[in-house]
């Protein structure tokens, strides 16, 4: 490691330039008299004492024995842990301070400029804004999900990374999402497996992503042309509160799309997937395509499931499956 790189690392941990120079000299010469360390670092007197005292306080160097002048570095593990936590606390305090200052500004000033509460993002700027939204989430993401989709190849990876950070993710899918070619297998199921809470409705009122209680992204999609190239960013205001209420009401009305199997013996994964698709309103052709089977095989499987559940029709089968914990 170069001296410049080590010096920068020490600076990021809160060790100033003078103390950093003393530490570099200490690593090169110690054990040695403190005066020799100071000479190598170009420091002396009170300035040397202050710099070396900072290293002792940080747990990076030992104090000279009583009556002696010989000093040496000490294993930095404990000291670095303390420094890292201290710096993290400082960064968090700064984040809260800056955020509070902006909130004060927003309350005092933005009330007179309502047009600033809704930002319009278009074209190539949409993708980076979506990715930033996922990365900025701290507690939860609430989403209405439906085609058309913005061509963002990293979207699934971003969602999985967000789930891995412990962020709660609740998504209401439209039936079109299940029927979109490859979307169920490549996007929806990996996210559910990673911990996403998913429900389904025949349709969703709008394409929407709500990040914590901070802001929402609302897509202005052109469905007929399969285009998604304009997004509204809604800051805290009455509109954001209405969007949150809309999501929560829709979540209550939506059908759970994924659950644990509680019936003894369970279900084969293919049959459980069949029931999820059926409950989501997918057509026979879509279900057969997603399962990779013929319509004839699909009908045979549904007849077997109806017999197992004591159902006379598909509606009763879906109802009984939910009661048994198969959905």
Descriptive labels:
327 residues, 14 helices
Give the topology, please.
Blueprint: H1 3-12, H2 17-29, E1 32-33, H3 34-41, H4 45-57, E2 70-71, H5 77-109, E3 118-122, H6 126-136, E4 140-145, H7 155-164, E5 168-174, H8 175-179, H9 183-193, E6 197-201, E7 208-211, E8 215-219, E9 230-234, H10 238-253, E10 255-256, H11 269-279, H12 284-291, H13 295-309, H14 314-323
Parallel strand pairs: 4-5, 5-6
Antiparallel strand pairs: 1-2, 3-9, 4-7, 6-10, 7-8, 8-9
Helix pairs in contact: 1-2, 2-3, 2-4, 6-7, 7-9, 13-14
Short description:
This protein is α+β, with helices and mostly antiparallel strands. The chain has helices at residues 3-12, 17-29, 34-41, 45-57, 77-109, 126-136, 155-164, 175-179, 183-193, 238-253, 269-279, 284-291, 295-309, 314-323, and strands spanning 32-33, 70-71, 118-122, 140-145, 168-174, 197-201, 208-211, 215-219, 230-234, 255-256.
